[in-house]
Write a structure and sequence with these properties.
The complex is a heterodimer of chains A (134) and B (364). Chain A is of the alpha+beta class and 134 residues long. Chain A folds into two domains: 80 residues, ATP Synthase, domain 1 (Sandwich), CATH 2.60.15.10; 43 residues, Single alpha-helices involved in coiled-coils or other helix-helix interfaces, CATH 1.20.5. Chain A is 26% helix and 45% strand. Chain A has two helices and eight strands, in the order ββββββββαα. In chain A, strands 1, 2, 3, 4, 5, 6, 7 and 8 form an eight-stranded mixed sheet that branches. In chain A, helix 1 packs antiparallel against helix 2. The longest helix of chain A is centred in the last third of the chain and has 19 residues. The mean pLDDT of chain A is 84. Chain B has a single domain, classed as Pyruvate Kinase, Chain: A, domain 1 (3-Layer(aba) Sandwich), CATH 3.40.1380. In chain B, strands 3-2-1-4-5-6 form a six-stranded mixed sheet. In chain B, strand 4 and strand 5 form a beta hairpin. The longest helix of chain B has 75 residues. Chain B is elongated. Chain B starts with a helix and ends with a helix. Classes of the chains: A alpha+beta (134), B alpha/beta (364). Chains A and B meet through strand 5, strand 7 and strand 8 of A and helix 2, helix 5, strand 7 and helix 8 of B.
């Protein structure tokens, strides 16, 4: 069996990644999934998190927020609503979003939607973490 | 007898105008090309999303086995009493009849639904200005006042909607989002729309925009976004094709600006997308198909809005290109006829002078 697989990451605006990878880690909704070539066919929703994959010995990292992945033996396709490479991340914006979300979580306002604020916080933190990797 | 100097001045001014229209045409052509490219780049995602939804329909029980009614709220059909209309126009003018045609169709849409309450969301400055002159703005909700500080657009369920400002009212306006269409915007908009739909505040959602498949294949459509009748099928409730004359003008403009006429070849992309998550093999579903279905369905609406925006932007640039092409050739015609008049005037002046000299010599 081949020891690589096709990896495609598609976002609403474009095809972000098309590569041959040896290994990938994707943030499934119920936990991170490690994928090696020859994985059983699988479909999963993605959570907010980090995608890492190895291609040609180099490791690549991307931040992703909500998506959807199909794993086949020789191909992995990821539909991501937002996916960014470390260099594309706007650190300042993420930092601000983080502060805003934290503030909202701390306030006792009943109108605040906690799940939303928590999601926002998680997204911002993931972005910041990924941005550090570059 | 027209003054030669005046005519010369006019010619010079028309030449300047022609230069401007020509430049605008070139710019629009370049922007059109870019808009077409981004629409093409957005295709794989939307195709894949649509296809996986279609395949999930057969795997997930989306209909209740006892009542036969759909389980997902976005599929539920209700009698259409309150409808939401999303109007997509341009931010700028000088695009021929682009905005006017859309707004005419909006008026017709509103007239053809006389017994329904219509909420309007305007995307684009031209549409907003038009609607504001005609219809009142919906009263603000109490809790949405602090929207800027980050409260969610999803309102608590126990809140009562304020009384309507009129049968037709404006509930939202977005200006300046079209210069760079972002999926993020479409997603946020669709979230708000979906929330209102699920709360039964609105019974149907339509989007009215200029569809753009290629320079020659364009039409105005009112598509029904919600409830979803069939996934992957466009539910057009009103459409208007461009006139033959308009089409000819477009072809001419596109040819002279070097923009391709044919729709981009999407066969390869579509085929690859068709294979996504739809193979007839036994997938491991990390989540239950129903859950996946429910998760993807709202995104589908967002993608549809996103696409409408992309197409509308492309159409706007195409319309501007056509209008500017027409303006350029009109200016050229005008220069020709003015030059003719000027030459005649000059010739007449010379003739007159000769006559004067000759008759003066004869008199001596």
């Amino acid at each position: 069996m081949a020891n690589t697989f096709q990896l495609e990451i598609v976002t609403p605006s474009r095809l972000l990644v098309k590569d041959v990878a040896e290994e990938a880690q994707i943030p499934g909704l119920s936990g991170y999934l490690g994928i090696l070539p020859g994985h059983a066919p699988l479909i999963t929703e993605l959570a907010v998190g980090v995608i890492t994959y190895k291609a040609n010995g180099a490791t690549h990292t991307l931040s992703v927020a909500w998506g959807f992945a199909e794993v086949l033996q020789d191909k992995v396709t990821i539909l991501a609503e937002t996916a960014e490479r470390p260099q594309e991340i706007d650190i300042e914006r993420a930092q601000k979003a983080k502060e805003r979300a934290e503030q909202r979580l701390k306030s006792n306002d009943l109108k605040v939607d906690y799940t939303r604020a928590e999601d926002a916080l998680q997204r911002a933190e993931t972005r910041l973490n990924v941005a550090k990797e570059k | 007898m027209p003054n030669i100097l005046d005519i010369r001045r006019r010619i010079r001014s028309v030449v300047n105008t022609r230069q401007i229209t020509q430049a605008m045409k070139t710019v629009s052509a370049a922007k059109l090309r870019r808009a077409q490219e981004s629409a093409l780049a957005a295709r794989p995602y939307s195709q894949m999303l649509t296809n996986i939804l279609k395949s999930l329909v057969s795997r997930a029980d989306i209909y209740d086995p006892f009542t036969g009614l759909p389980r997902h709220p976005l599929l539920a059909e209700r009698p259409e009493k309150n409808i939401l209309l999303i109007v997509v126009t341009g931010d700028k003018g000088l695009a021929g009849a682009f905005n006017t045609n859309i707004l005419k169709m909006v008026s017709r849409f509103i007239e053809s639904n006389p017994d329904r309450n219509i909420d309007v969301e305007c995307i684009g400055r031209k549409g907003r200005d038009f609607m504001r002159r005609r219809y009142p703005i919906a009263p603000k909700r109490a809790s949405s006042a602090d929207g800027a500080t980050g409260a969610s657009p999803v309102q608590p369920e126990n809140e009562v909607a304020p009384p309507r400002a009129g049968r037709v009212q404006i509930v939202g306006e977005y200006v300046g989002v079209l210069s760079k269409v972002e999926h993020n915007f479409a997603a946020t908009l669709s979230e708000g729309v979906i929330a209102r739909y699920t709360r039964c505040e609105i019974d149907a959602v339509y989007i009215l925009f200029n569809e753009f498949k290629s320079v020659i294949a364009q039409r105005l459509v009112a598509e029904r976004l919600l409830p979803i009748k069939e996934i992957g099928e466009v539910d057009v409730s009103m459409a208007e094709e461009a006139s033959e004359e308009e089409r000819k003008k477009r072809i001419e403009a596109a040819k002279s600006a070097g923009v391709g006429l044919r729709p981009a070849d999407t066969a390869a992309v579509d085929e690859a997308a068709a294979r996504f998550a739809t193979l007839p093999i036994d997938y491991i579903y990390e989540q239950r198909p129903e859950r996946l279905f429910a998760g993807i369905l709202p995104k589908y609406i967002g993608i549809q809005i996103f696409h409408a925006l992309l197409e509308s932007v492309a159409a706007e640039h195409a319309a501007r290109m056509t209008a500017m092409d027409a303006a350029t050739s009109n200016a050229s015609d005008m220069i020709d006829s003015l030059t003719l008049i000027m030459n005649r005037a000059r010739q007449a002046k010379i003739t007159k002078e000769i006559i004067e000299i000759v008759s003066g010599a004869a008199a001596q």
